[in-house]
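Cross-check.
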Amino acid sequence: MRPFTPSVTRHLLLAGTGIAALLASPPTVHANQPFLIPNSLVVSTSTYDNSQGALASLTVGTTLPDTATQTTSAVAGNDYVNVWNNASVDGSFGATSAIQLTDLNPLSGHVYTSLSVPSDQVVTSFSSKSELGLHIVNGANGPQLTFVGYGGAGVGAIDVSNSDAVAGQDPTNPVTFCFGSNYAFARTIVAVDPSGNISYTPTIDYGGNNGRSALLGSNGLYYSVGNANNGNTSQFNQGITNPDVTETTGLEVVTPINGSSWNVTIPPDNSAEVDPLLQFEFNGKLDKAGKDDNFRGVTEYGGALYFTKGSGSNGIDTVYTVPSLPTVANAASTTLAVAPGFPTDSAKATGGNYTPFAVFFANPTTMYVTDEGSGNATDLTSHAGLEKWSLVNGTWQLDYVLTNNLIGTVDNVTGNDGPWPTITTVGLRNLTGVVNGNNVTLWATTSTASASGDNGADPNKVVVITDKLSATTAQQVANEAFSVIGAPTYGTVYRGVAYVNP
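Predicted model, tokenized:
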């Protein structure tokens, strides 16, 4: 196997179609076939499947949730192009799909292994664009990859991403009202080892919304991020949900269970929210509980946690940090803070002019942050893309934003259900990278805009760029540009990326 060398990234760019080709004809995976090969790139994908579950029989008129007291009727059937128009009448609309992990050579695009995660164990919500973030940590037993899925939902289930996490959790949740109090699915942390063995840690967290990313901390605990609360719970009526959606959201510390199935007993007090009072203290205002800490990207660096909030009109959209790794016991007393130098203004006041998604550290004083570009015009022109930040005298400052050959690129794809609306790249989501001398090579998944009923269902791309570590101005990197290594594939979405360090 040829080792990764950023100086020859051009060879990777010429490969181009490695992932897409795999999706069309996945290789057979053997029990002893290696996974998480050093110097490889792992990509998480999901492909739309309307042949299973409730989705298979979805037609115009099918009952969908509307509010906690009434239902509505579907306005579209289950074909890939039009099904997402149901979001116009059902704010919780989504459809579950299977998860695939592709381990490939980032130089040639050659696929080493494709691992299909058992869909009878965990699935993802196809159009939930913030899901399936990947993290790889090297431990005593080799690398371990982690992500979050829905336990027991199966392929083709509807509105799972806004369902309860525990049966009967929230009587004000429209999904609960429509499908019944037992329509609940544990947000489950999944771990994969180098042999492709999979283990599961179900949680009680993120009821009413989605778990997005999880990592194994250097202290052996899991740290996950996500959102909660699809009902009416606020600071005025806490206690109507069980478990409380105001305390099972945001940044969660989780004790690993690592069972052979998602359907194992969750011990009492197995997880805890870090700084649960954050959502009740924003500028002295009373926001809807569970939304100020609507986090979606997380990483550990130097014994600290860094995580992002980049969606929703509540709280502050920015990069947050915890200086040391909290435990379940001290999570509630641990305080979150905005990383020095990052925005501290209200998302409501600015209208979403900053939408950070994922973080990668090149060294202690260099941080890369992806911006989704899904906010207002200021976000698209000033932040969207790949931001480079430098730590100067204890404060992070923005050096430049890499956007060449990225923002505004247009793609057209078509398939059995007809052409997909024209897709425009507007920013980046999940991120990974590797440092080699003065070169930092970074891979990311793109965010998109189209006339689709849900842009989270848009076929997107995996892109790569190499930046000069020493550069601090846009003029120094004017020739740097993104290239595509995973082209848009009809009916498929790219979600997470993770580089396997040796």
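Residues 6-58+68-106+118-499 form one domain. The longest strand covers residues 423-436. Passed to J.P. for a second look.
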